[in-house]
Each structure stands twice: as C-alpha cells, then as structure tokens.
Amino acid sequence: MPTIVVEVMPKPELLDPAGKAVAGALHRLGHDHVTDVRIGKRFELSVDTVDDELLKSIEKVAADMLSNSVIETVLSVEVLDESPAGETH
Predict the structure, then answer these.
(1) When you count CB atoms within 10 A of the terminal residue's CB, does the N or C end of the chain come out lower?
(2) What burial class does residue 10 get, using C-beta atoms within 10 Å of its C-beta: 0-12 exposed, 13-18 middle, 19+ buried?
(3) Residue 62 to residue 24: CA distance in whole angstroms
(4) pLDDT tens track for 18-36
(5) What is the three-class DSSP state of 46?
(6) Domain that includes residue 31, residue range
(7) 54: domain CATH number?
(8) Residue 88 lies in a domain
(9) What is the DSSP-derived secondary structure letter of residue 78?
(10) Are 43 and 8 a contacting pair, CB within 8 Å?
C-alpha cells in the first residue's frame, strides 16, 4: 500500500521556540557542534493507489489542512512506497 509523506516546517523567518529549547538542551549535554534546530511535522498518509490527480489533491490538503500557511511551509509531498510489500525499487 503506498504511503504519501507530507513534510511541514515553520517558515524560516519565524522563531521556533521548540527548536531553540532542543538546541539549548543539546548544548547543555555537550553537543556544541549543533548550531540550530528547527522542529517540523511529518504526516504519513496511506492510500490505495497513487496517480497525478491524487497527488494534486494531497498537495491541496497539505496546504489547507495539514499546515498553517501563515507560519508554516509545506516542504514536500512525496510517495514513500508504491511497491507491493517485500519489493524494493
């Protein structure tokens, strides 16, 4: 069964308080090599089949329902797996 993955991130110009908190915690734990953390959302939508019409529909759903266009950007809408179970590309 195919899975469509939608990735959403806060707009780059906006503060990401959760990301800042994680970055601070990493620094306190000695991970000074981490310079920034941004936290986003990942949605995995299982579908029966994938075609161009469905992908356009999911892109609209991502923009209208899965993200807040004022503060977030939809980074990608991609098909994770179209092959039957056990097969790889």
Answers:
(1) C
(2) buried
(3) 30
(4) 999 999 999 999 999 999 9
(5) strand
(6) 3-81
(7) 3.30.1280.10
(8) no
(9) E
(10) yes
